[in-house]
């Protein structure tokens, strides 16, 4: 019988000792993976503490749920599946990731331990360049002196020659066809043709260049980590042979400054995988590593699938009637 401590030990082994080991680790500033994330909005900052966020190391761990971002839906599903440990990638905020109530009230009631592992996991494997079809020969984690600003410079893998190869490779690995079928089925079942779903809506695209443009050396950036057009200028001057800018996890629209700068530099621009598939990029490899270290545990991937439906088509006639009545009789009456 495994315990939460066994899971923590396995994660510590996988990360090469990056987990917090106790209060001294968070207070001393000695663990570089204990980081505060803030937009300077009062009370909304988070401190990432790679390791146990809620629960007891002595609690049993027989079923583990792997999630990107902890939500009330994942907590409910974990409870229904009798999962005892949730391992979330993105940091967990008390009262926010637990359905607006304190973690101890919700996870405590369900007896579920929660572990977070974010920046401490990044950079442990070369999977993201691999999925996009290149091999990074240069990896920066604080490009231009900006912590977390990641830059990969890579060369195409064998068999990867033109931009169309990048799109086809991502379509294969990320299962575009299957996602498309899921969306078609959803549209049919719900009787609504205008449903939009994240994976289908945020697939890889070429913004500059064509399917037949040669890939060449790749500058792989993550715009949400702070990569600016000045950084692009600098990277291109360091690697003049670079022909393609590849942006992934976060996207940029064709009108974005970075795209304009790439065009001025005579480069191609491709947007690759979105954040919505990071569960495959990062959490599947971690799940496989855990399964190899702790094979007696059952692992579940709790994958979010978000779709949007126009309000007038949402729900069925009964729930639409209910919504209208509550709105008219109670919500609007007080105005
Ligand atoms: Fe990540
Ligand atoms: Fe992420």
Low-pLDDT runs of 5+ residues are none
Distance between the termini: 59 Å
Count of individual beta strands? 15
What letter string, H or E per element, gives the SSE order? HHEEEEHEHEHEEHHEHEEHEHEHEEH
Shape: globular
The distinct bound ligands, ions and cofactors come out as: fe (ii) ion
Describe the model.
This protein is an alpha/beta fold and 335 residues long. It is 35% helix and 20% strand. It has helices at residues 4-14, 23-27, 72-80, 103-110, 127-131, 163-173, 176-190, 198-201, 229-238, 257-264, 278-293, 317-331; strands spanning 35-37, 46-48, 51-54, 63-67, 85-88, 113-116, 134-140, 151-156, 196-197, 205-208, 217-221, 242-249, 268-274, 298-301, 307-308. The strands form 4 sheets. The chain has a 6-stranded mixed sheet, sandwiched between helices. β5, α4 (103-110) and β6 (113-116) form a beta-alpha-beta unit. α1 (4-14) packs across α11 (278-293). The longest helix has 16 residues, at 278-293. The termini are far apart. The model has no long low-confidence stretch (mean pLDDT 96). One fe (ii) ion binds next to loops.
Keywords:
335 residues; alpha/beta; six-stranded mixed beta sheet; 12 helices; 35% helix; binds fe (ii) ion
Could you give a quick summary of the protein structure above?
The chain has helices at 4-14, 23-27, 72-80, 103-110, 127-131, 163-173, 176-190, 198-201, 229-238, 257-264, 278-293, 317-331, and strands at 35-37, 46-48, 51-54, 63-67, 85-88, 113-116, 134-140, 151-156, 196-197, 205-208, 217-221, 242-249, 268-274, 298-301, 307-308. With 335 residues, the chain is α/β, with parallel strands linked by helices.
């Amino acid at each position: 019988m495994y315990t939460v401590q066994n899971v923590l030990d396995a994660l510590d082994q996988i990360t090469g000792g990056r987990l917090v080991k106790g209060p001294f680790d968070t207070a001393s500033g000695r663990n570089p993976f204990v980081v505060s994330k803030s937009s300077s909005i009062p009370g909304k900052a988070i401190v990432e503490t790679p390791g146990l966020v809620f629960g007891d190391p002595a609690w049993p761990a027989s079923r583990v749920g792997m999630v990107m971002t902890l939500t009330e839906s994942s907590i409910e599903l974990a409870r229904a599946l009798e999962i005892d440990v949730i391992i979330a990638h993105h940091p967990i905020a008390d009262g926010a990731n637990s359905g607006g109530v304190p973690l101890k009230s919700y996870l405590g009631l369900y007896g579920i331990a929660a572990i977070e592992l974010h920046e401490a996991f990044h950079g442990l494997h070369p999977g993201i360049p691999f999925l996009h079809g290149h091999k990074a020969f240069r990896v920066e984690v604080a490009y231009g002196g900006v912590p977390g600003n990641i830059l990969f410079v890579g060369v195409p893998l064998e068999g990867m020659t033109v931009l169309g190869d990048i799109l086809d490779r991502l379509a294969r690995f990320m299962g575009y066809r299957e996602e498309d079928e899921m969306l078609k089925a959803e549209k049919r079942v719900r009787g609504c043709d205008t449903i939009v779903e994240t994976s289908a809506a945020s697939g890889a695209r070429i913004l500059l260049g064509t399917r037949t443009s040669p890939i060449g050396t790749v500058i792989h950036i993550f715009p949400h980590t702070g990569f600016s057009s000045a950084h692009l200028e600098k990277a291109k001057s360091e690697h003049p042979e670079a022909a393609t800018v590849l942006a992934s996890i976060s996207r940029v629209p064709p009108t974005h400054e970075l795209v304009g700068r790439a065009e001025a530099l005579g480069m191609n621009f491709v947007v690759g995988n979105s954040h919505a598939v990071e569960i495959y990029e990062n959490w599947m490899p971690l799940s496989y590593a855990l399964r190899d270290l702790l094979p007696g545990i059952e692992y579940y991937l709790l994958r979010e699938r978000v779709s949007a439906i126009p309000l007038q088509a949402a729900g069925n006639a009964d729930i639409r009637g209910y919504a209208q009545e509550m709105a008219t009789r109670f919500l609007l009456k007080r105005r």
